[in-house]
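re the bet — no i am not wrong, look at it urself. input seq straight from the record:
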Amino acid sequence: MATPEAATPLRPARMSDQRVGDHPKAAPKTPVSRKTRKPSMTPVFLIMIVGAIFVHLLFCLALDNLGDKVLWHPFGIMADAWFGDAQFIINPILAFIPFDVLFGFAVAVVVGFIIRLPFFRDRVYHTVADLKKRLALQLSASADEIESILRNDPESNARLLARHEDIHLDSVHAEINAINSAQAYLTGKGSWLSGAAIYMRFHFTEEYSNTVTGMAYGGAAFLIFVVGIRGLKFISANRPSFVLFALGIEFTMLVLLATTMVYTVEEERTDLLLKQMVDAVRGGKKHKTPELETVEPALQLTRGDYERMVREQMDKKIMSVMADKDDDALRRIALDLVTKG
């Protein structure tokens, strides 16, 4: 016979029946996605400032040794220098600041790549990512196929790429080698020169070559202006600080232009030419939104798609030009073609 306790139906436990320590576990919160922050340029600026100060002291020391007699004013703001019988009043800060910034920046770049500062590592990483996308577009391959190609030995890649008759093999091999060298740099095994080279060759020269060329011409124009007003005696002959400043500006721009030209790709690749033509057809480059960056529409277009788009736009342009011509002009064009043919 069942006891009353056994016959009593079970009831759900209430909050008051639970012990104080037995709290129900809360559902885990969904982690909030945050945008990746770009590495700060502060360490680069600090290294550049230290390098610029060091270079400035070296220039002041060189001036002190080259001059027959040099009298420095307090804090080194001005200096009276004698070279033989000629006396000059020099402002070292104004005269040497372009050289200080140039060599200080060069020190910051070299040291930054050597010790692998996050700012420079991020630049190399994004350059490698863009170069992989370029290879995927050029070879009409997926991202996994590109990773497989990068892991292959050179002989296997040579046999694989030989099947593609519409690509520039030397350019593709150079890009594959550059990516592998840059990835070795990112893992801490490669030379800092490989990381700097891939960034300069495949990003800086392609994005800023026209800007650097324009700055070089601007520096030359500024130097001509300064030399001109110096010839008109607006600048005293014994105060050459402003002329040295103009010479430093032009020297800096020419060094930057020479560096850009050293890393510029010599041959014109077909994929870059097609990209430039499509950009021109679409009305130039446009800023991408974050939503469009995730879609990567460029990877969905093959070389045939680009060529077809360009041909269609060229046909439309030719038809519009022909429509604007009168009958007599069209006859003259046809006769001229027949004569030359």
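see?? The chain is about 65% helix and 5% strand. told u. also Residues 39-115 form one domain. so pay up
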